[in-house]
Design a protein that fits this description.
Length: about 180
């Protein structure tokens, strides 16, 4: 008698899946954060204000760290209690929650950057531009909405069906295509 239930994925399969998800999330965030840095640099250049090209490095580091924070939050089941609600509510809540995390991370990042540049530690918080950090967090919140929409949609429809919708011809009009039906 054979057991037809699918075997649970092993450690290697889980590690590969999590690393692939980390790469996808981090790549999306890196693309977005670098675009935001480039836009900011272009705006500042219009007013003859030089900006630091090191910001691209910080954008990529932010993407990698925030990508990991998102995966850790997923493993810790952050927002899992709202998953029974309509999808838009789950997406908005998770986008807001992770935007707050990004805001805190940006505060820490600005603090470290200013210390590296030699500002006295007592004046670092005073010299931060809260309006810029808040507006950046609002933009990040808007970028998180499609990210979490895709993550939640994949959770609801299933991973195979989700990827089939984006990678197989006719999948959107032919339900069950990913299962071979």
């Amino acid at each position: 008698m054979t057991d037809t239930a699918p075997a649970k994925p092993g450690f290697k399969q889980k590690a590969k899946a999590e690393f692939r998800e980390y790469l996808v999330v981090s790549a999306y965030l890196a693309f977005f954060f670098c675009a935001l840095v480039a836009y900011t640099m272009l705006l500042l250049r219009q007013y003859d204000v030089e900006s630091d090209s090191m910001n691209f490095s910080f954008a990529i580091i932010n993407a990698l760290i925030i990508g990991k924070i998102i995966l850790i939050g997923k493993m810790m089941k952050v927002g899992r209690g709202l998953e029974a609600r309509p999808l838009y509510q789950t997406v908005i809540f998770k986008s807001f929650l992770y935007s707050l995390l990004v805001f805190v991370f940006h505060l820490i990042e600005e603090f470290v950057k200013r210390l590296i540049r030699g500002e006295p530690s007592g004046t670092v918080l005073h010299n931060m531009h809260a309006n810029e950090l808040i507006s950046r967090s609002i933009v990040v919140f808007c970028a998180f909405i499609p990210l979490f929409a895709f993550i939640e949609l994949r959770r609801v429809v299933g991973e195979e069906e989700f990827y089939a919708l984006f990678s197989k011809r006719g999948a959107a009009t032919n339900p069950g295509l990913s299962t071979g039906n």
